[in-house]
Amino acid sequence: MAGSADLHEPGFALHVEDLTVRYGSSIALWDIDLDVPPGRLVAIVGPNGSGKSTLLKSVMGLLRPVAGHIRIFGEPISRARSRVAYVHQRAEVDWDFPATVLEVVTMGLYRRIGWLRPVRKAHRQAALEALAEVGMEAFATRQIGQLSGGQQQRVFIARALIQQADLVLLDEPLAGVDAVSEDIILSLLRSLRDRGKSVVVVHHDLSTVRRRFDWMVLLNRRLIAQGEMRDVYTPANLKAAYGGQMAVFDAADADDPARSGRVGGQV
Amino acid sequence: MPMLVDLLGSQIVRTVMLGAALVGAVSGMVGVFAVLRRQSLLSDTISHAALPGVCLGFLLAGERDLTTIMLVALLTAMAAALSVLAIGRLTPLKTDAQLGIVLSVYFAVGVVLLSHIQAQGGGARAGITTFLFGQAAALSAQDLWVLGGVFAVATLFFVVLWKEIKLATFDPIAAAALGLPVRALELGLTVLLALTIVAGIQLVGVVLMVAVLIAPAVAARQWIGNLGAMTILAMGIGGLVGAGGALLSATGRGLATGPIVVLLASAVVLVSILAAPRRGVVWQALSAQLQRWRISGDRVLLAMDRLAAAHHDPDYPSEKGMLDTMLGRPLPGVMRRLEGQGLVRPVVHDPESSPHWVLTPAGRRRAEALRRTGHGPD
Predict the structure, then answer these.
(1) ipTM summary value
(2) What domains can you pick out in chain A, each with its CATH number?
């Protein structure tokens, strides 16, 4: 039914236009225009409260914006759910819930399985494969309450992988995870990108963003800048997003504008 | 004992026990989700808010007609749930304050109505107070059909929507992101919660109904880490304490059923919290103690290993006072435990009379592994 005539900006994995979101009387996002081309590893960066998570929740249709529209590969979220997967912050669930790792990963298939149909062996097999991709297959029968933070995050990512989406949104997947999990997650995100998927990550750490991502969206309630990392990661843009409160440095980047005094980066 | 057997033979007692078992089982089933969705206090509010409905239903029917009473009670119970929602939307009040306000206002209205009905006098009217603390003996055979109907509706609801409810309970954000109708599922669960409460108050009473919902789920969670099995166990616990409480209250004259059921359920919870493997208090304390023993045992082995190295004698007998000084007094039982594991061996070191130990070959191996890796080989 979705003929190409219905599509709006189908060339972008994600297209956001005039998006404004309000919580009560405070404005979380103001007039955002955003385009993410396919096959990119995108970082959404901005200070605390800059609307990064709100942006992802709006894309998933979990919040009702007061203005604007969003398209995923040219379609509204209601018609694109099978093409997009979302990994929300892991602190947003109670990990004491009685379930195994495998059970949680198969939850990613619940929509595809459909109403009234049970989870079958093939679904569990797919979940095991997704767990193998995040190095967690040995934990399949473990209670989720026994996992470390990094392992929880990998389980959530496996639940997204199993959906085989073309666009994957992740909210702070590297926050509070151990080094092993971080390496596994990062290489997985890169391999998704290399397979032509689009990966959009809310990232809190300015000091590592340049090495890890190739496209950047800089946000502070308004859109500050978007585009190729080298074009966006500039002193002027960072200052516009973070103001004078920047305290970042990147040991691997000697010429990092974030640490050269020009940004006004008082530590 | 003969009295109990007589009681079991009575048709009335069997009716009452079956009704109480049905109420307990359905409460266990629905309560699992109330607990996991952190709605214990909402359940208590809904239950207290059923009282004005009970009284209005009584006034409407003019007698103690369970169907009418339940329908009107369901209405006021749902109205209370919606009131909580509305206060949350319209005011900055936190959840506990929202629940406290709604619970007390609805319950106050209920008590006013109750006093009004009682003031009118009449034998049947006095029976209305049993809805406060429950009276299983008041249950009739027709009432069983109503309770059975509620049980059937709840079972059907969970069987048909099982995996969707599971996801919406564990992770409503992911459920919504997948496109599941989370709001509708939550509404369904809340209506079912109210229906279960309303079905249970004749037996348990509005004041204590929440315990019958919560206790079986809490107890079951202690033993089981699988949602389906936990639900079935909660149903079993609920059914048993319901039937048991009804039987006990039938033996004593005028003994309210609610408190007895709640005491039975609380006993099950207490045992579960204490004795369950892994999550139980006893288990946790034991494993913490084992851990302490292991750590201090490892420190003893390392200290003996260092003493042996310092004296260039792998069989150097370490004296108790020396180990105590190095380690700041090992926990009692540590040396005996190490002996039991074959890691150290007591020796006599003439002419001293104080206790001495040497490392066994196994003890030396473990000490060496500890030195290399910082933790034991196991």
Answers:
(1) 0.90
(2) 14-242 (3.40.50.300)
